[in-house]
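re: ur msg from earlier - yeah i can do the heme C complex, just paste it... oh wait u already did. ok heres what im feeding in:
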Amino acid sequence: MKKWLKFTSVPILAVFILLMFYLYSAESRIKGPSQPIFFSHKIHAGDNEIPCEYCHAYVEISPVPGIPSDQKCIGCHLFIIGKDEDYHYDGRSINIKNEIQKVKDYWDRNEPIPWVKVNFLPQFVHFNHKRHIRREIECKACHGEVQNMDVVHQVYKFSMGFCIACHQEKARDAQELTMLKDCLTCHY
Ligand code: HEC
Ligand code: HEC
Ligand code: HEC
Ligand code: HEC
Ligand code: HEC
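and the outut:
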């Protein structure tokens, strides 16, 4: 092996490994966690145009939008049993009818569907949906085009810069800007 090759191959390998790690974590972020039931936002909020607020009903009145209870699902799925057809996602085939049957099984067992949380903020950050929604900030400003996602995933990293950039842009006047940039607005 040529001498220069020996010296350069180590850093090249290190960069390659780091790149693989990066791609791997980027990929798992894009796919979102694996959920107990394959629930497609694209089929519900996209194709069937069910409004976000129909399921996330508390978004305007409480700090958290809330994940719908099984009862909300059963309200439709007692009647909508689903086509006996396969839906393809990420190399998997999901039978629509069987997947809906799983919702009924949870309901019959009187067991809430154990959804896995997708979006996270550290404990020391205070966030409240209500004020943002009242100010007519769309869901997609923070969650991306959820109606096009089969599996919801976090689109933006909720870094301090992400929050403050918009606060800076949307502030109506200097006074509001001061409030929206104040450390104690988001941390206490
Ligand atoms: C038919 C009911 C239904 C509709 C309509 C719906 N959602 Fe959801 N949503 C759910 C369920 C159930 C979950 C939990 C499972 C999951 O994460 O996929 C969820 C999860 C989410 C999450 C991730 C929550 C977390 O754990 O951090 C976001 C964000 C979200 N929905 C946004 C939206 C937006 C935006 C719309 C409208 C474009 C919408 N949803 C429409 C039922 C619904
Ligand atoms: C407003 C009515 C409505 C509500 C509420 C609703 N669904 Fe659906 N759901 C549908 C329709 C319509 C389809 C498409 C059925 C088809 O194509 O045969 C569907 C399809 C599905 C499917 C198969 C496709 C997929 O996404 O994998 C599953 C699973 C499902 N629903 C689960 C749920 C769960 C879980 C909830 C509660 C969080 C829920 N649904 C709430 C109307 C609804
Ligand atoms: C200004 C940014 C922003 C907007 C706008 C926004 N969200 Fe969120 N959302 C967040 C953040 C940040 C979290 C994580 C909160 C946490 O972990 O405390 C979150 C969490 C959620 C969750 C999970 C809640 C839970 O119980 O775990 C759902 C569901 C959700 N958002 C739905 C919506 C819907 C629907 C809309 C539009 C009506 C919306 N969001 C608008 C930033 C936003
Ligand atoms: C797309 C724009 C936008 C983004 C992104 C955004 N905000 Fe805001 N935020 C606003 C606006 C506008 C207000 C003022 C709302 C009002 O009171 O009229 C606000 C108000 C607030 C308030 C004060 C009101 C309250 O709810 O107590 C807090 C706290 C807050 N934001 C936290 C955050 C955090 C944390 C993030 C990042 C995870 C974030 N915001 C991301 C636009 C945004
Ligand atoms: C609009 C909301 C918002 C405001 C205002 C804000 N922060 Fe943050 N801060 C955040 C968020 C969100 C995180 C979490 C970042 C993450 O998880 O990567 C954070 C994280 C931090 C951290 C942890 C270290 C880090 O960077 O992750 C420190 C320290 C901090 N903030 C200090 C401050 C100070 C000091 C101020 C005032 C000058 C301030 N913050 C104003 C939202 C805010």
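cool cool. The CA atoms of residues 84 and 98 lie 8 Å apart. ping me if u need the other ligands too
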